Amino acid sequence: MSALEDKRFLIVTGKGGVGKTTVAAATAVSLAAKGKRVLVAMCNAKERLSAMLGSDLIGEDVSEVAKNIWAVNMNPERALEEYGLMTLKSRVLYNLLFDNKYARSFFRAVPGMSEWAMLGKAWWHTTEVRADGSPRFDVVILDAPATGHGLDMLRVPKVIVDVTPPGLLRRDAERAIQLFRDPKFSAVVLVTLPEEMPTSETIELAAALTGELAMPIGQIVVNGVLPPLFSRDERATLEGFAMPEIRNAGDGALAAGRDRAIRERVQAESLARLSRELPVKPAFLPLLFDNASTPHAIHELAKRV
Question: Which residue range or ranges hold the ArsA/GET3 Anion-transporting ATPase-like domain (predicted)?
Answer without folding.
Answer: 8-160
